[in-house]
From TrEMBL:
It comes from the Eukaryota. GO terms for biological process: protein import into nucleus; ribosomal large subunit biogenesis. Transmembrane segments: none annotated. Belongs to the nuclear import and ribosome assembly adapter family. It comes from Trichonephila clavata. Coiled coil: none annotated. One of its GO terms (molecular function) is unfolded protein binding. This is HEAT repeat-containing protein 3.
Length: 133
């Protein structure tokens, strides 16, 4: 009677899965603007890779980041559309779908500079070849 059990202390794990949270990613982006350059380089390498999965992943990443104006501007400076437009006629369907989605999101979320870049960087040749297939 009158005895009290001692409470066991739980260790509070700040990140049990090991995956960074959205808040951490945003803070990292704010504190380290060079991370955007590293992201751009890695995406360009993925899109130009020989592996099918990496090409698809690179196009999907760009499709998801298409509403980030600074990222899109840096992509256009690197002639990204000229790099990704041949993926429209890739022999793998998943890569073609990802490339088309990527270009669609860039055109839909971007301003007139994206439309001009689509014409200047000759996306129409690959698009016509896709329609002919």
């Amino acid at each position: 009677m009158g005895k009290i059990k001692e409470k066991k202390h739980k260790f509070i794990c700040s990140n049990p899965t090991g995956i960074p949270s959205l808040r951490e990613l945003e803070m990292e982006y704010i504190l380290n603007p060079k991370a955007d350059d590293e992201t751009l380089k890695s995406v360009l390498l993925k899109v130009q890779s020989r592996r099918v999965e990496e090409r698809e992943t690179g196009a999907v990443i760009v499709a998801n980041l298409a509403n980030n104006k600074a990222f899109v501007t840096s992509l256009l400076e690197e002639n990204f559309i000229k790099i990704v437009s041949p993926l429209l006629i890739d022999k793998h369907l998943a890569v073609r779908n990802a490339a088309a989605g990527c270009l669609r999101n860039l055109a839909a979320c971007g301003d007139y500079t994206v439309s001009e870049a689509l014409v200047d960087q000759d996306v129409m040749t690959s698009l016509v070849m896709l329609f002919e297939q």
